Automatic annotation (TrEMBL):
Pfam families: DUF4096. It comes from the Bacteria. Residues 105-127 are annotated as: Disordered. Residues 7-77 form the Insertion element IS402-like domain. This is Insertion element IS402-like domain-containing protein. InterPro entries: IS402-like_dom, Transposase_6_like. It comes from Streptomyces macrosporus.
Length: 127
């Protein structure tokens, strides 16, 4: 049964080959379980500790999230998803040229470069 905020079987089959393989250390929690916990956390906006226990120990999710973010796993997933969507024609490219004119404030006009202003010609002489 696929729960709300979890990866479907098709989504899992898409990302599974993009995940790094861990060949050392003790047996670790299934990547799909952890990834579903990470997805659940970001879709709901809760703290890591508030993600349901069915996604494994709370400390596993942020640890694996940081590791995958650091080694480029999520970047590979995004690139692969973009490539697949582009190949299927699901990406619309829109180019916009902005011709907005930005005006300077009236006090910004006419100042000398270097920060010192020239004396005004209508200013009275000070003796």
């Amino acid at each position: 049964m696929i729960r709300r905020h979890e990866l479907s079987d098709a989504e899992w089959e898409f990302v599974r080959p993009l995940l790094p393989e861990s060949l050392r250390g003790r047996k670790r929690l299934d990547d799909r379980t952890v990834l579903n916990g990470i997805v659940w956390k970001f879709r709901t906006g809760v703290a890591w500790r508030d993600v349901p226990e069915r996604y494994g120990p709370w400390a596993t999710r942020p640890t694996r999230f940081r590791r995958w973010a650091k080694d480029g796993t999520f970047e590979r997933m995004l690139r692969a998803a973009r490539a697949q969507a582009d190949a299927a024609g699901d990406i619309d490219r829109l180019v916009s040229v902005d011709s907005t004119v930005v005006r300077a404030h009236q006090h910004a006009a006419g100042a000398r470069k270097g920060g010192s202003a020239a004396p005004r010609s209508d200013a009275p002489e000070v003796a």
